[in-house]
Amino acid sequence: MSAVIPIRERREPVLHDSGCVDAPVLRERGQREVFCGLTGIIWMHRKIQDAFFLVVGSRTCAHLVQSAAGVMIFAEPRFATAIIDERDLAGLADANDELDRVVHRLLERRPDIKMLFLVGSCPSEVIKLDLSRAASRLSRDYLNRVRILNYSGSGIETTFTQGEDACLAALVPELPVAQAMAGAAGTDAADAAARSLLVVGCLPDVVEDQFARLLAQIGVPDVHFFPPRSSGKLPPVDAGTRYLLAQPFLAETARALEGRGASRIAAPFPFGVEGTTAWLQAAAAAFGIDAAVVNEVTRPARERATRALQRERALLEGKRIFFFPDSQLEIPLARFLSRELGMQLAEVGTPYLHRDHLRDELALLPTGTALSEGQDVEKQLDRCREQAPDIVVCGLGLANPLEAEGLTTKWAIELVFSPIHGYEQAADLAALFSRPLVRRAKLAAGRATVNAEDACS
Ligand code: SF4
Predict the structure, then answer these.
(1) What is the pLDDT of residues 355-393, one digit of tens each?
(2) Pocket flag, ligand 1, residue 58 (CB < 6 Å)
(3) Which of 95, 263, 329, 387 is packed most tightly, with the most Cβ within 10 A?
(4) Phi, psi (rounded to 5 degrees) for 167
């Protein structure tokens, strides 16, 4: 039997427990301007490479998914929309038959699909359909060939990044039991479960590879990533599995994992040098590995990232930033921008604040940061105009009007589409904020030159 490495609880306080942990939060429930959870399909389909996402929705849903996918053209796409037109309750039986027909046609034509997600949306005709029943019905037809699951990406139930959360939460019951896998490998079950780490949240492959390398060098044993790159490589989970969130918007997934007995390693999120180091240290500490080992292993990457950030700091220091609630990445990003780049936080809005998952992040925010949760968009726009920040992070719907008013904006959606985690991406992440400011400065300089030339002529 292999040696048992004691699981040590995280030493508190690893980070100073002050900042905004108990800060008051402005809660607003009004009109909101956020994408729905269908958007997550755009990054999820790239990750699980033998999965297919079939949106059961309207033409609006089809347009959203298509335009969010931009100009991507695939010979064999991995998402589509089954359009359910208006129909009354009497027509529901037909709708179910129609859905079955679409699924059969798809799976016969595409034997490469090993996992199919039926993704619900918000038109009333779709809400009337029981997609979980449809998934079980269809699963019986494709037993051992295709896993068929369902989740909702409806704009009524989910915002932008909650689509990923709903998708992963739907996948958790499919994860194999760690004990069964340990038994198959001939090792002690409890030992194997206690020694595995599950990194949770969709990461670009290049970032996943970087983290896998660092965790291996640090000595964290048996690391798995969820979601995996293929449906045949679902990671094991059981009581004693420790999981580490890579994304701050996975409340439902976390709940589902805990329902399977896994326990969360509390940590800030791996954005910037500080966040990435603290995240790796939290993982190491949970496996009894000293912080000095992490510091030694990560030194070259930290030094590289710190040097690269200096250039960005020169562009961003002292600039004021206002976050509208959109991706749920706002609080970790605000922490990174204020602490590593010297930016000032005018307001940090988030669609939903999970105090427990964000505790270490809140502790690192400057005391007195204006925090808001939810949205009443007109009121928030008024606050934003009053603050006149240097840059505003918001959804596409608000960006154009704010640009027209003379404010510089950054689309929140780009932050989810770009590789931004870890040391190697820290400067790229900072550049996502500095580029719009540089562009605005160049435009202003160009206008000033034209005006000066006009004045001379
Ligand atoms: Fe619109 Fe709802 Fe479809 Fe999203 S799910 S595109 S909010 S109709």
Answers:
(1) 999 999 999 999 999 999 999 999 999 999 999 999 999
(2) yes
(3) 329
(4) -65, -50
60 Cβ inside 6 Å of ligand 1: yes
- Which atom belonging to ligand 1 lies closest to the Cα atom of 120? 5
State which of 83-92, 103-112, 179-188 shows the largest mean pLDDT.
103-112
Question: 123 CB less than 6 Å from ligand 1?
Answer: yes
Could you tell me if the CB of 413 is within 6 A of ligand 1?
Answer: no
Model confidence band, residue 89 (pLDDT cutoffs 50, 70, 90): low
155: tokens are 């704009």
Residue 405 pLDDT exceeds 80: yes
Identify the DSSP state of 22.
T
61 lines ligand 1 (CB under 6 A): yes
Asked if residue 119 has its Cβ within 6 Å of ligand 1, the reply is no
Q: Which of 64, 65, 85, 126 to mutate to test the pocket of ligand 1 (most atoms within 8 A of CB)?
A: 64
